[in-house]
Amino acid sequence: ETLDSGGLLKLSNSIALDSNDNPHISYHEKYGYVNDALTYAYFDTSWQTEIVDTGRGFGSFNSLTLDSNDNPHISYYHYSNNTLRYARWTGSYWSIETVDNVGWGGDSSLVLDSSDNPHISYYDENVPIDFAKDFREYRNKECGHVSHERASLLSLTAFYKKYHKYLYFLYQDSIYWWGSKKNESPRLKEITDFSI
After folding, report:
1. Which residues in the chain belong to E strands, given as ranges?
2. Helix (H, G, I), strand (E, B) or coil at 110
3. What are phi and psi of 76, to 5 degrees?
4. Largest CA distance in the chain
5. 130-160 pLDDT, tens per residue?
6. pLDDT tens track for 98-138
7. What string of DSSP letters covers 42-94?
8. Is the pTM of this model over 0.70?
9. Cα distance between residue 131 and residue 162, in whole Å
10. CB within 8 Å of 121: residues ≥ 6 apart
11. Partners of 66 in beta bridges
């Protein structure tokens, strides 16, 4: 069944069941190339949705869990400010705080202990200093701007194996900066095919 058909894209999501086995879902929602939202949905005879946090780059890599009172807690990545954030429903409002400034990162996973205290694991990665230089060289090879002799020394497969995770982050970032029209955004396949 469809629980939310608004917005442009529905991206990363997380699901948990409450004490009555009703589903609760958090997800990253895009409303264009500069507007994002961390959205929370739950089922209570019908689907209810609400925006937890909104702005450019909010909501990716989210992880949802429920506390002993079935209140939702969500960890997520704020892509624009490179921060890991934590939101919890107090019973009357969303309490939101920044956990860490992580650089390029994400993939958060949230659990609560027996006292409902949060514990979050996440990926924190600083981009290698030679990524930009190497990316420029390999991009020029792919575009045919490098001499044949020099191009033969560059292995695109080796480049991809070394930097594939940064290419994904580059792709994610390009979605926000590429343009205002849907057809201007690059496709992930175009970037991953770069390794062939």
Report:
1. 9-17, 23-30, 36-43, 47-55, 58-66, 72-78, 83-89, 94-101, 104-112, 118-125
2. strand
3. -165, 170
4. 67
5. 766 777 666 666 655 555 555 556 566 777 6
6. 998 866 656 788 999 999 999 998 877 666 667 667 776 66
7. EESSSEEEEEEEEETTEEEEEEEEE-TTS-EEEEEEETTTTEEEEEEE-SSSE
8. no
9. 9
10. 108, 109
11. 72
